[in-house]
Design brief:
The protein is mainly beta. It folds into two domains: 250 residues, Pectate Lyase C-like, CATH 2.160.20; 223 residues. Helix content is 4%, strand content 39%. The protein contains three helices and 46 strands. The radius of gyration is 23 Å and the shape is elongated.
Length: 512
């Protein structure tokens, strides 16, 4: 909510895809039947590129190797940019850039100029490429006309795998200007689908760590535009000055509006924390709008089994563009706690924004968010929400006793039921604001709204150790077997991947 404009990288051709499983590629397990090549800081680009006579630069390898090749990069610091424009193929196999054995190659941007929107590692219009096992760091600028990116994939293409990389200290330190405070943008990993109908597709981003990024009005990990079919899994995104993970649509990134939405994706098993605009000069001092996980105009995707905590907002599914909707997003089996503004937010942040439509928020554990005590509650229902389902969630209020806050009356067709509520003040003092009317007391809220006919209020949900961040349920928890077994939306696994349906019963909350 109240995001500034994401950086538009229109005009650049872009690409992305999916590829190999995560994990270090070992010399004994080279993909397909391709040749192995080697790069080392002690090498020479006039060498043969063998283990005994390695090349010196990553770029020479990228400009040389054919489809099916694996480029093993030895440990050390490589102070260079890497531009990948050659593709692998389905028949020959991908082109793989990987760390050798357990060594740690570092691609360091210190002292390198940032030209326009540019990646320290950049993949442009390629297919079947894997980049894994690198530390990528120190690509910085103080220019408003430049956007540094750790790994930047753009154009159209597929079967790209970015895995087990550590991306940090990618920064834009320009002073923002104007009433909209723009001019300061950077990304850790950015995927921009800028062509149509050809998309970036079959994309895997897995096992990466993104931290200490100075992003301005941008995002740590973003998929924007014509990106279709992706998996963002098991990443750690933390201590950045804006949004953690973002799926974006309607920004004009793709040349045809019909294709301009990130879609058909999975965001699973990520741990996202300490992402806030609190000290970001691109935002007002009282702004708290950095979502740990944010869907702004994306559609047809699942967000599950993630931990999101100590961000401004835990999870937000909204649209910043008037007349446009974020749609068919399922948010399930996530643990969302101790976020500053609210736990889950849906709808446009004001009446000039778009809507949240046909989304499902099910089996989440949402615990003591709104740590600023601004009375935004655990679920913040904003402008124009239609036909959304909110079921099987545990909502635990903080000291304000506020569970839902919905000041807008443009709210229709939303189904809210089979949830478990808890608040420090108990059932009689807990509050819900629904369609701009406040209700104090659980029974008053049920009667006044028609919501939550099958829901429960409990003085204690009985978590194992919420103070220690363990939100599994004790055997005596009232949430056990109290949920609605709607197999069409609840998924097959809980927060740990264990079976969601046991017999005919389902728990409320993230833990089964």
């Amino acid at each position: 909510m109240m995001k500034l404009g994401k950086i538009l990288l229109a005009g650049l051709s872009m690409v992305v895809g999916i590829g190999l499983a995560s994990g270090n590629v070992q010399p004994s397990a080279a993909s397909a039947a391709g040749t192995e090549y080697y790069v080392a800081t002690s090498g020479s680009d006039t060498n043969a590129g063998t283990s005994d006579a390695p090349w010196k630069t990553l770029q020479h390898a990228a400009d040389t190797v054919p489809a099916g090749s694996t480029v093993y990069v030895r440990g050390g610091v490589y102070n260079e940019k890497l531009k990948i424009t050659r593709s692998g193929s389905a028949s020959a196999g991908p082109i793989v850039f990987a760390n050798y054995d357990n060594e740690a190659p570092i691609i360091d941007g210190k002292g390198l100029a940032v030209s326009g929107s540019e990646g320290l590692v950049e993949l442009n219009d390629v297919n079947y490429v894997t980049v894994q096992g690198f530390e990528i760091r120190n690509f910085t600028t103080a220019s408003k006309n430049a956007v540094p990116v750790g790994i930047y994939v753009h154009g159209a293409g597929g079967f790209i795998n970015l895995s087990n990389n550590k991306v940090h200290d990618i920064k834009n330190t320009a002073t923002p200007s104007g009433s909209d405070r723009l001019g300061r943008d950077a990304h850790g990993i950015a995927v921009y689908g800028t062509k149509a109908p050809d998309s970036i597709h079959d994309l895997t981003i897995s096992g990466n760590e993104l931290s200490n990024l100075v992003l301005g009005s941008s995002e740590a990990l973003v998929l924007n535009g014509n990106v279709d079919t992706f998996a963002v899994t098991d990443n750690i995104v933390h201590d950045n000055d804006n949004i953690g993970i973002d799926l974006i649509g309607f920004e004009g990134t793709a040349p045809n509006a019909a294709y301009d939405q990130a879609r058909n994706g999975l965001v699973k098993g990520n741990r996202v924390y300490n992402n806030t605009v609190k000290n970001n000069p691109s935002y007002a001092k009282d702004d708290n709008s950095a979502g740990g996980i944010y869907v702004d105009g994306g559609k047809d995707s699942v967000i599950e089994q993630n931990y999101s905590y100590n961000n401004d907002i835990g999870v937000e599914i909204a649209s910043e563009h008037a007349g446009k909707s974020t749609s068919n997003i399922t948010v399930r089996s996530n643990v969302i706690y101790n976020n500053r503004l609210t736990g889950i937010a849906i709808g446009g942040y004001d009446t000039k924004r778009g809507s949240t439509v046909n989304c499902k928020i099910v089996n989440n554990t949402v615990y003591k968010n709104d740590t600023l005590n601004d009375y935004n509650g655990q679920l913040l229902v904003q402008y124009d929400t239609q036909n959304n389902v909110i079921k099987n969630n545990i909502f635990v209020a903080n000291s304000t006793d506020v569970l839902f806050y919905n000041e807008y009356t443009k709210n229709s067709g939303n189904v809210v039921d089979y949830n478990l509520y808890s608040a420090p003040g108990g059932s009689s003092d807990a509050t819900w604001t629904w369609k701009n009317k406040e209700y104090t007391g659980f029974s008053s809220y049920q009667k006044g709204t028609g919501n939550d006919a099958h829901s429960l209020f409990a003085d204690d949900p009985k978590f194992v150790n919420e103070a220690g961040g363990d939100f599994h349920l004790q055997p005596s928890s009232p949430a056990i077997d109290a949920g609605h077994t709607d197999t069409a939306i609840i998924g097959t696994g809980d927060i740990d991947g264990e079976s969601r349906v046991k017999g005919s019963a389902v728990n409320i909350g993230a833990d089964e």
